[in-house]
Structure prediction request, 580 residues.
Amino acid sequence: MLSLGFWLGPTRVKAWGFTLGLFAALLLNLAAAVAVNGWNKFFFDALQYKDEHRILLSIYLVLGLAVVCALTGALLQQVRMRLQLRWREWLTKTLVRRWMERRRFYQLSILDLVDNPEARIAEDGRLAIELFVDFTAGVTNAALTAASFVGVLWFIGGSLTLFGVEIPGYLVIAAVLYSGITSFGVLLIGRPLVARVEQKAAAEADFRYALTRTRENAETIALIGGDEDERVKLDASFDALALRWLKVIGRQTRMMLMSSSNTVLAPVIPLLLGAPKYLAGEMSLGDLMQAAAAFTQVQNALNWLSDNSLRLADWFASARRVAALDSAFRRLDALAEGPGGHAIDLGFSDDGALHLRGLSIAQHDGKVMLADAEVRVPPGEKVLVKGDSGTGKSTLIRAIAGLWPWGSGQILRPRDARIAFMPQRPYIPLGTLRRALDYPHDATPIAPGRTELMLHACGLDHFTARLDEEENWSGILSGGEQQRLAFARVLLKRPDIIIMDEPTSALDELSQTRMMELLRAEVPDAMVLHVAHRPGLDRFHDREIHLKREGSQPATVEETPADIWMAGRRWLAKIGAGER
Prediction:
């Protein structure tokens, strides 16, 4: 059902155009094959009658047929591969869009609904499209070929009298019976192959993931001396892959026994069946060779499915893995509603404040972590979120950011507010440092020289000369430098709301103080929600939210001023402004 969008959506004109082009190319290719079959009769009859003029003419004809076959083959290749490319382009972009929207890529990373979504999109999506187009073209070509050459066999072979019984179209019957026997044998032997290939594909994806994970965590593994443990795990992962490969090899070897014997027997059988009529003078040499070629064409057409059973198994396994990913997207949407059809309602407020109304946050299995939170954060307020481990501090931040749908109640964010999220481990994209500072790119104008100014303010001025160098910056910058880079990025963007989750954990106390003072000075009007447990942060915030749990009960919210001195200063400021 997923792929129907390619044929029914905005790409339908292109999709049907390539499909009709593929069918037309198949017909042209078939016409060329029929012409070559007719040439066999013409040439071998000329040999039988030693007609030099016809032999010379047949040489000219076969050269012309070679050019025609080359052109039709090239056309078929072009149309087939372009259809595969355009269909894969549509499928990949559709899967990537669905993976990224509603933050499903994040939710799949914490829920065990499907493994290796990136491999399913890239590798399995490619195989599902390429092999399906090959499969469709192959089946269509086999059907057309069988229909065309059955007529040739029926006409040339005629009937055969056996034990006084006349058998009309005996070569056609022989071709069908022979193909049926060989196909049944191959399919019977290779029946478990689909499951084996699917298991092998899953093991391939697991092995690639293990290698990628080792590369991404190379520094940590090297520092703690985990090289040998990682090697053992990688070896074990490949051993599991090799074991599954052996099961595929075993099944494929059994099929090859049948296929190899068929390769020898198939061209001989029509010659043996036609030999009596040739010796009796009822069939010319050209008729015999044309019938033999037509028999082979029919036999190949009827055996196409069994001959391509391994590729069909690959296609079926890849298609199932892509379908499972599509199903996981739908299951995520269903799980987002939670038990009883409830989900966190993420909406907009009209007063510029952030509201948590009756907010309960649950794990995806329905277990409540935070219950009935009622909080209002006015514009510009800086709020520090604290609590014991497991009370749901980071999950609360994720829910406000729109990453966590499980629970109930409302989160109302200021309409049209620009929101920046600062995690403990900043994401630094590939490319230049300037691009990393402007990530994610938006329409926010950056004044000339301000990028260099923010780098200097955040203690990264030694990278100013390298702003336009393309490097793997996440591997070059230390943990503290990456966190200071995240502060510089936010200061350049100047968002309305800043959501922070331990963004100073890698900084020393002096650097932490400088970054927080810089944040208050550069974006004084920004609303800040800051999850942290390190000391010294209270004075940079106006209020604290404590998440507290009593025994096994869900956590609740308790609000207190962040700092008496700060609260008193704000009160004096209001008095000075004439407020009551």
